Each structure stands twice: as structure tokens, then as C-alpha cells.
Amino acid sequence: MTPNCTADKCASVIPPTATDTLTGFTQGTYNYYCEYHFAMRGTFIVQALPAGPDFVINSSSTSLTIDQGSSQTSTLTISSLNGYSGTVNLTLPNTPAGISAKFLGSSSFSITASTAGSASLNITVAPRYFNRSYTLPIAGSNGTTSHTTNLSVQVTSASPASSSGLPAFLPVIVGIVIVGVMGTAAYAVLRRRPGKKGPRASR
Questions:
Q1: Which pLDDT tens digit goes with each residue over 83-97?
Q2: pTM of the model
Q3: 155: CATH
Q4: Which residues partner with 90 through β-bridges?
Q5: Tally of structural domains, the chain
């Protein structure tokens, strides 16, 4: 008896030229084999879908160190990814208490693959505010997609020179002069004070 080898048992499951969409697989390399054709083995790679047009927000510095009662400015760049072209609006959703931030100029930008947007953000710290690190989120949206970048703000104590506008050593010199003047005046008063006279000798 001659076996019938013309029928392909795989043909009823997957046609030889069929394509299929894989769902539930993470990215990576997988091994496969055929249950009927044991010599048919190999590997296939699962890749992520190509990224669509998008944008990204970058800051000129990821962190700033600002004295109490002072301010600094950071530059933000809004760039196109994968050929994005459109308008991006910047906002400050959750500014920490004691810190005020505002855009110096426009906060809305039309960008293309070859043209980026640039924004200036001014950050001011209240006088005598707590010395520690704060996170200032900066959000950008085109109406359908939103991205957020965080700027770290380290608040430090204001130095004597920055808080009073005078050199730090000047108060020390003034104090020494005042003490010296007071000491000289006290010495002069003591010298002018008449002493007690003794009894006169009898004749």
C-alpha cells in the first residue's frame, strides 16, 4: 500500500503564503516549529509598531539652584519627532507653593520637521522659603497627545551679600567701629569725673 503524501496537513490550518497578526506578544525573538513537518523550524522576531509623528520637550538644564528671593530663566525647546508638524501649547500644571513661574513671551508654537520652537521660562523663589528640592512640571499638548518634562529647582539660603545688597564683611566692620566708639566715650567720661577730696588739715 502506497501512503498518500500529496495532502499537506498544514494547508488546512495556515495557507503557505498567509500572513497573520500576532497579538499578546512582547517584543523579542521566538522559536517556532511545525507539528507535522518536524524539520520545519526557525525563529521570528516581534517588533513594535513604527512610532507615529510626535514631539518632544527639552530644557536647557534639568535642574536649577536658586537663592531665596531670587529668580533664574530656563530655555525650553520643542522639537518634532518622525515628521510631526503642528501646534504645541505649553502649560505649567502644578507649580509648587513658594515658587512662581511664567513664560517670557509665547507659550504656543507651530513646529515642523525642520523648525523647532523655543520658550523662555522664568522661575522665582519667594524670600525665606524652605531650603530643599522642588519639582516643576512643564506640560506640552497638541490637542491629542501630551508630554511632560520635569525641572528640578533647588532652593538655597540667600547669602548676606544678596539679601542686603552689601558686602558680607561690612556688618562686621560696622560692629567693631561702634564698639570702639562706645569704649572711647566711656573712658572719656570716667576721666572727667571729679574724685573725692580728703579732709583739710587744721591749722
A1: 999 999 999 999 999
A2: 0.58
A3: 2.60.40.10
A4: 140
A5: 1
